Amino acid sequence: MSGDTPGDPCAGPSRDLWSVDEHLDDILAAVSPLEPIELQLPEAQGCVLVEDVTVPVALPPFDNSSMDGYAVRVADVAGATEEFPAVLTVIGDVAAGAGGLPEVGPGQAARIMTGAPLPPGAEAVVPVEWTDGGTGGGAASGMRAASAAPEGAGGEVRVHRSAGAGAHVRARGSDVQAGDLALEAGTVLGPPQIGLLAAIGRATVRVRPRPRVVVLSTGSELVQPGEELGAGQIYDSNSFALAAAARDAGAIAYRVGAVTDDAETLRATIEDQLIRADLLVTTGGVSVGAYDVVKETLTADGRVDFRKLAMQPGKPQGFGTIGPEHTPLLALPGNPVSSYVSFELFVRPAIRALMGLGDLHRSRVRAELKADKALSSPAGRRQFLRGTYDAESGTVTPVGGAGSHLIAALAQANALLVVPEEATEVEPGRELEVVLLG
Question: Which of 77, 81, 173, 377 could cross-link to 419 by cystine, CB 3.0-4.6 Å?
Answer without folding.
Answer: 377
